[in-house]
Amino acid sequence: MLKNRIIGALQIPSFGHGAARSMAWYEDFVLSNARSYVENGITAIKLQDETVEAGPAQARTLARTATLGAAMRREFPDLELGIIVEAHDPVAAIAVADACDAAFVRLKIFVGAMVNSGGTREALGPEAIAFRNRIGREDIQILADVHDRTAVPLTDVPNEMAAHWASRLGADALVITGSSFDDTLDRIARARDMGIKTPTVIGGSVTAANVTRALSAADMIVVSSALLRDGAADDAMDRWDPTKIRRFMEAANQ
């Protein structure tokens, strides 16, 4: 399990055609916003690629994400770094994590089959686990979403059954996020009632007002939206608000 219970998400503006900027700009963006997290108490960060791609992650996406992850590790050597890649690609995030020595990855559709805005998506889990084993990087932890809330399951599989599948397949932690905060807590409770002992992560909807309840129900949480600076643009060098981060951590540590 990760040392830190609270993971801040840092979304990178797209590398896509017509949108990409210089690597110097991306490095300034990532390091500036990571500093807001680290200096105010969040020392685990998930670096999140948001480049929409029809197939596997392209070489440019992999290279740029790995380069930015390496820059974060150099600037903040004690950081627990995570990687998520937007493309539905079973090995991309693990390959990037291997390249920049990240501690974990998040895979959104780990088991089963779902449909989202990009179409039908099959399970990433089996190939991802096989690739991780093949390169000898079992130390890279996999945080696997159980019925990611941005997609719809193609069959009526109960959430706790999907959690059981992900646990058995080899996920190191289960990301469980319902349609509301209360639904999230209910899903976690039902997974526990089924006897699932794999650590759980709440993947969204955590705020300073409910973080204490979140940490009493789950082993870890991911937070981002609640910490955004009011009115900040997606490409702002100060997109995450230091004051909100500090107050969130104060609430979490009560």
Mind explaining what this structure looks like?
With 254 residues, this protein is of the alpha/beta class. The chain has a single domain, classed as Aldolase class I (TIM Barrel, Alpha-Beta Barrel), CATH 3.20.20.70. 37% of the residues lie in helices and 19% in strands. The protein has eight helices and eleven strands. The chain has helices spanning 23-39, 59-75, 92-100, 125-134, 159-169, 181-193, 211-217, 242-252; strands at residues 6-12, 44-49, 80-84, 104-107, 113-116, 119-122, 141-146, 152-153, 173-176, 200-202, 220-223. α2 links the parallel β2 and β3 (80-84).
Question: What is the secondary structure topology, with strand pairs?
Answer:
Blueprint: E1 6-12, H1 23-39, E2 44-49, H2 59-75, E3 80-84, H3 92-100, E4 104-107, E5 113-116, E6 119-122, H4 125-134, E7 141-146, E8 152-153, H5 159-169, E9 173-176, H6 181-193, E10 200-202, H7 211-217, E11 220-223, H8 242-252
Parallel strand pairs: 1-2, 1-11, 2-3, 3-4, 4-7, 7-9, 9-10, 10-11
Antiparallel strand pairs: 5-6, 5-8
Helix pairs in contact: 1-2, 2-3, 5-6
List descriptors:
254 residues; alpha/beta; TIM Barrel; 8-stranded parallel barrel; 3-stranded antiparallel β-sheet; 8 helices; globular
Shape: globular
Low-confidence stretches: none
How many strand units?
11
Question: Can you count the helices?
Answer: 8
> Into how many domains do the coordinates divide?
1
**For the record, what is the CATH homologous superfamily label?**
Aldolase class I
What's the SSE pattern?
Answer: EHEHEHEEEHEEHEHEHEH
Helix content: 25-40%
Strand content: 15-25%
Enumerate the strands of the largest sheet in spatial order, edge to edge or round the barrel: 1-2-3-4-7-9-10-11
The profile of the biggest β sheet is:
8 strands, parallel, barrel
CATH topology: TIM Barrel
